[in-house]
Amino acid sequence: MIFPLRKIEVQPTRRCNLNxxxxxxxxxxxxxxxxxxxxxxxxxxxxxRVLDIGHVVISAMYGEPLLHAGVRPFIRCLKExxxxxxxxxxxxxxxxxxxxxxELLTSDNxxxxxxxxxxxxxAANPDLYKLVHxxxxxxxxxxxxxxxxxxNKKSQKPKAAPLCIRIVCLLSPRxxxxxxxxxxxxxxxxxxxxIRFSAPITPIAADSPESCFITSxxxxxxxxxxxxxxxxxxxxxxxxxxxxxxQPGKVFSRCFVKDSALVIGPDGKLSPCCYTTFxxxxxxxxxxxxxxxxxxxxxxxxxxxxPRQVCxxxxxxxxxxxxxxxEKEI
Length: 330
Prior knowledge:
alpha/beta, TIM Barrel, 12 helices, 10 strands
């Protein structure tokens, strides 16, 4: 049985203008500059529109999407589609956001369109930006200015179809609660919708320095401290642990993601979710230029893997959903 695709994720490029130590992409096939051809991106956008796939993600798993010349035309082509229910999500480090991109992101938004801007250093601590992003603090100021421009552009648009602007901050032992409080007040004052703090408590990339990670106790301390920020931000602060170590348990034989999602990497590799684009994943397919999304979905339906290899370290929520689905079938 071929399940309908509900989500497609494209990982456009391995190129990036930052050098963040804990980045997954930095530790995987370092030095490669693969990217999906611009023509292929536009072909995918046209197919997505016809198939009315509900959720399209433009991923920053390996590199900065806006460095790819085809990404803005890809978004524009999707937004020209007739679907009222399709929504688009862009992940970016924010350094290449400009007036033209802000106009594109806020134009003809479907309910659910979002942009996730990864910013791991508060404005009050430019030295930390250089440390965690491997770039000059002037890029931090540029990014903050671009965020403010984006929120201003959004405020001029109809309220019926808003763009959700979320800042994603990866915590480290170097973060100070006082700086984070200033960050929350500044960003929510600009009009940012959500600020999501994530706590990496196990290594992400193989060569990531230990100083990038926090202990379970530090994670608990951050949760308690950040809970008080919700009052300041009117509920706009979120917190999540990431990379939770695998838990022992029963064998799962079904993955709900595989039957409804498709991820295309910058090298043309095909997988059922972002985590499986890692080189060690045992069953990967190479997408051929002439293959349609439906062709790819049919091949994906025959792909087998053990979800224990993927779900626990990637997302505990997905792990639990898979277990619930398996138990329900039994």
